[in-house]
Amino acid sequence: MAQKVIELPAAATATTENSSGSSAAIFFIPKSVITELYTSGISVGTANTVTNPLDVIKVRLQLARNNLAAGAKPPGMVATGVSVVRNEGIPALWSGLGPSLARGFFFGGARLGLYTPIKTLICGESAKPTLEMKVLSGSLSGGLAAAVTSPIELIKTRLQAAGRDPTAAKTSMGVIRAVVSQDGIAGLWKGAMPGLIRSAILTAAQCATYDEVKRGVIATTGWNEGAALHLTSSMIAGLVTTTITNPIDVIKTRMFVGGKTFSGPIECAALIMRTDGLSGFMKGWSASYARLGPHTVIMFLTAERLRKYAGLQSL
């Protein structure tokens, strides 16, 4: 009786032919997927570095109410940025950059890098994916990435929120020690659920919107792959993504900094609703878009360029 031959991915086959296997595959992961991961990680890391000051300002804005007297109006984005520079110096705008880069490479690389492979796995090589399939692919890649890298996000947020508080940890290891001593190892995943939900929605909105808008622009204008197409698509994707994810981002930030103050995201959301109303969930929107808009543009422009050099298809 004829036996069915099971073909391994090209990269995995290359591993058996090359004793070192270092340039072909890791644990039978196809080389194309590894390339997706590292090109995406570099893209997100680049965007994180450029927009880190805006991320610091966004975190400070979202936490501003905690340090204000009742009825006082929180400062705006520009005033917050000026205050940070005046009181803490320009380097404070890049506080948390280390964990931000680590998170960008691992988390960003996974959530963006797994989007295309997951979409291909769900829809097949030749099928044209629907919007629903794109949203599902983005949700899966974003949620998986966030679940693994949530402690890095917590460390980054604590460092950015520390300011001149003498009791706050000023290094990554200091934050880890403080969290573990207060909440145990599980404390490093405090806020992981809203972070996971946000990441799933963020990736779904960002990738699916970019994907759909890009196809629509091509159909409408006849543009070819290039900077104009990528810039237009990424700017629209950034606007949509910011609006959808801002409420979850506010809850996530409060939980990261609050430690045991909240038993879960529902309690945190209820407190925001009681104290600030619905508008409280849009706190820091301008700073979020000022960061996420350029971040999305830089990320996709860099990713498209790197994918071209790496021989991958455009997003």
From TrEMBL:
Predominant location: membrane
Protein family membership: Belongs to the mitochondrial carrier (TC 2.A.29) family.
Subcellular location per the Swiss-Prot or TrEMBL entry: Membrane
Membrane-protein topology: Multi-pass membrane protein
Keywords associated with the record: Membrane, Repeat, Transmembrane, Transmembrane helix, Transport
UniProt-listed InterPro entries: MCP, MCP_dom_sf, MCP_transmembrane, Mito_Metabolite_Transporter
Protein name: Mitochondrial substrate carrier
Solcar repeat windows: 31-121, 129-216, 225-309
Pfam family, one: Mito_carr
